[in-house]
Amino acid sequence: xxxxxxxxxxxxxxxxxxxxxxxxxxxxxxxxxxxxxxxxxxxxxxxxxxxxxxxxxxxxxxxxxxxxxxxxxxxxxxxxxxxxxxxxxxxxxxxxxxxxxxxxxxxxxxxxxxxxxxxxxxxxxxxxxxxxxxxxxxxxxxxxxxxxxxxxxxxxxxxxxxxxxxxxxxxxxxxxxxxxxxxxxxxxxxxxxxxxxxxxxxxxxxxx
Length: 208
What we know:
Number of domains: 1
Order of helices and strands: HHHHHHH
Low-confidence stretches: 101-108
Strand content: under 5%
Number of strands: 0
């Protein structure tokens, strides 16, 4: 795997994880309800779940990529379309002044936030679909072992996602508990959305 590919993948992963979504809502909810410690536990629990999805994706995608050029191409273009959708949605939210972090009181209290985080992540079908559509975009069949490439990409994504989630946990109470900081999420969504739109175009035009 080329260093350029890994750097591009890292940039894409960071952009995706900076966009506030259900996982961030879960983390910030726990942070505001149970202080920063609960938010950190939630972030770490989600991270373990990401690793579980990584292993599942590696097992399924390796066979797909190696055995069917047609199916791989279909997954590739669907993945690019998915990234385009996420990017446009983020830009629209930024322009309209909306934020995904609108209701931070919907989760029930729990005595084991870490365990709940693992369960929330593992049982989320959208996370599984995301891994299946996102990881193959950066695999180079000609570069060698596909399974190893998928594993490396999955672990890198999981680590970056967990680091960003920990950042949200540490900043959640201050940033999202302060009405004056509402512009923060709009700016994040706007910049990340633009990066995702550009990335989807690059993926769609890149040959296998």
